[in-house]
Inverse folding.
């Protein structure tokens, strides 16, 4: 069911400051910058070998701004590649895991996804991603 790690989401206060570290210092390739209106964030997706790093900056109130207020900057979620988000979500629910999303969503032009709640994932917000 799990094909590998798709990306690691990192909540940041400033996308520009984070890009100076991840792109300019570490040399990760910037794939693009987009606004995700559903979550009121601006994201930058960077390539780190076979895994992507998603830097997320809040544009106002929303889940990422709440995360930053509560926990500060850092890892927000881990995204796992799956063949089928519907199947992975159904299997997770059948095994007692709590979904954040009951139905898959379409991301910022890159993929379909659904989240599993950290309460059922040992404290980690997990995103299931179908390319």
């Amino acid at each position: 069911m799990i094909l590998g790690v798709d990306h690691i989401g990192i909540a940041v206060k400033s996308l520009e400051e984070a890009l100076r570290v991840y792109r300019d210092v570490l040399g990760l390739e910037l794939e693009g910058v987009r606004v995700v209106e559903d979550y009121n964030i601006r994201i930058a997706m960077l390539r780190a070998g076979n895994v992507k790093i998603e830097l997320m900056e809040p544009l106002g109130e929303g889940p990422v701004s709440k995360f930053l207020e509560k926990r500060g900057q850092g890892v927000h979620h881990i995204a796992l590649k799956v063949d089928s988000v519907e199947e992975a979500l159904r299997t997770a629910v059948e095994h007692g895991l709590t979904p954040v999303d009951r139905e898959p969503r379409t991301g910022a032009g890159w993929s379909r996804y659904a989240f599993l709640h950290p309460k059922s994932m040992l404290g980690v917000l997990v995103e299931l991603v179908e390319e």
